[in-house]
Amino acid sequence: MSFVVVYDANVLYGNTLRDLLIRLAMTGRLQAKWTSRILVEMQRNLAANRPDIPEEKLGKLRLLMNSAVRDCLVEGYEPLIEGLKLPDPDDRHVLAAAIKVGAQVIVTSNLRDFPSEHLAPWEIEAKSPDDFVLDQIDLDGRVVWACVQQIADSRVNPPETVDDVLDALEKAGLVESVAALRAG
């Protein structure tokens, strides 16, 4: 059985963090999942906060994400939503998707919206992106380092170094993960 995680919209918002999370999924060590609704939320927030990004580019981002990670889209979770309880009812769709695919983890920056007492019956845990990436480093730091290197290698306009990528990840909240990667 594979390790299944659902990425919440807030962890897919930032470019460098999103890139790392997708590359981690592309290694085959985990199966990343999201829904069209999660992507719509991410896209809506990007459009609101970054009006300089053209709508067609946001659409292309969505297509690229869905093609980068095999079998990533969760469907058929909607009937579960009404029966779920979370502090923010607007987050129930994320939990419903996680239940539908048998996810072990929801990666989210809003941990308070996914309290353990509401997730425990489903044997699901909410993790911050920093804790999730730290877990991946503990499993095999070389894999995470390779993903960071791939991100740096892909950034050509303007060019970025591994340190630039690590700085961006640290600004995105991966403080402990970046410290662990820098410590080697």
Structural summary, described in words:
- Strand 3, helix 7 and strand 4 form a beta-alpha-beta unit.
- The radius of gyration is 16 Å and the shape is globular.
- The chain has 184 residues and is an alpha/beta fold.
- Helix content is 58%, strand content 7%.
- The two termini are 30 Å apart.
- It is built from 10 helices and 4 strands, in the order βααβααααβαβααα.
- The protein has a 4-stranded parallel sheet with strand order 2-1-3-4, with helices on both faces.
Keywords:
globular; single chain; alpha/beta; 184 residues; four-stranded parallel β-sheet
Question: How would you concisely characterize the structure shown here?
Answer:
It contains 10 helices and 4 strands. It has 184 residues and is of the alpha/beta class.
Describe the secondary-structure layout.
Layout (H helix, E strand, L loop, with lengths): L3 E4 L1 H4 L2 H12 L4 E3 L2 H14 L5 H14 L9 H4 L10 H10 L3 E3 L8 H4 L5 E3 L1 H26 L7 H10 L3 H9 L1
Parallel strand pairs: 1-2, 1-3, 3-4
Note poorly predicted spans: none
| Residue share in β-strands | 5-15%
| Helical residues, percent | 55-70%
- Overall geometric form: globular
State the helix count: 10
Structural class: alpha/beta
Q: Please count the beta strands (DSSP E, at least 2 residues each).
A: 4
Order of helices and strands: EHHEHHHHEHEHHH
Distance between the termini: 30 Å
Strand order of the largest sheet: 2-1-3-4
Whole-number mean pLDDT: 96
Cα-based radius of gyration, to the nearest Å:
16 Å
Oligomer: single chain
Largest sheet: 4 strands, parallel
